[in-house]
Amino acid sequence: MIKTAPIKAIQLSSTERPKHVRLTSPNTAFTNEVKIDLLDGIGKAVDLALAFSVTSDHECEVDLSAYPLGVYHLRVLDQEMFFVKRIILN
């Protein structure tokens, strides 16, 4: 059974690091077992193994600087939980 894990917060980092997204979840630890996918605005896969850096147990940062401006969805999956968050790069 897959359980949904709400994202507690999503933050775009400061202008020092444009197109970096920080994900925070109180229920999911960001480990090597977590997979983050990038989907376009209609759900088509853009990158099915997006690299991320773990900043703490429940927080990670994703670098989207290589992607053009637009609407995307970040899909975070692990063995028991998943969540999807829409972001707009402008």
Topology:
Layout (H helix, E strand, L loop, with lengths): L2 E2 L4 E4 L7 E5 L10 E6 L4 E3 L4 E5 L2 E5 L6 E8 L3 E9 L1
Parallel strand pairs: 1-9
Antiparallel strand pairs: 2-3, 3-7, 4-5, 4-8, 6-7, 8-9
How would you describe what is shown here?
With 90 residues, the chain is mainly β. Strand 8 and strand 9 form a beta hairpin. The mean pLDDT is 78. The protein starts with a strand and ends with a strand. The strands form 2 sheets. The protein has a 5-stranded mixed beta sheet, with no helix packed on it. It has a 4-stranded antiparallel beta sheet with strand order 2-3-7-6, with no helix packed on it. The radius of gyration is 12 Å and the shape is globular. The protein has one domain: Sandwich (Immunoglobulin-like). 0% of the residues lie in helices and 52% in strands.
N-to-C CA distance = 36 Å
Mind telling me the CATH class?
A: Mainly Beta
**Approximately how much beta-strand content do the residues carry?**
over 45%
User: What is Rg?
Assistant: 12 Å
Strand order of the largest sheet: 1-9-8-4-5
User: What pattern of helices and strands is seen along the backbone?
Assistant: EEEEEEEEE
Instruction: Provide mean pLDDT, rounded.
Output: 78
Q: How many strands in all?
A: 9
Spans of 5+ residues with little confidence (pLDDT < 50)?
Answer: none
Structural class: mainly beta
Count of folded domains: 1
CATH fold-level assignment: Immunoglobulin-like
Tally of helical runs? 0
* CATH H level, superfamily name: Immunoglobulins
> How would you describe the shape?
globular
How much helix is in the residues? under 10%
Identify the CATH architecture.
Sandwich
Q: Main β-sheet, in a few words?
A: 5 strands, mixed
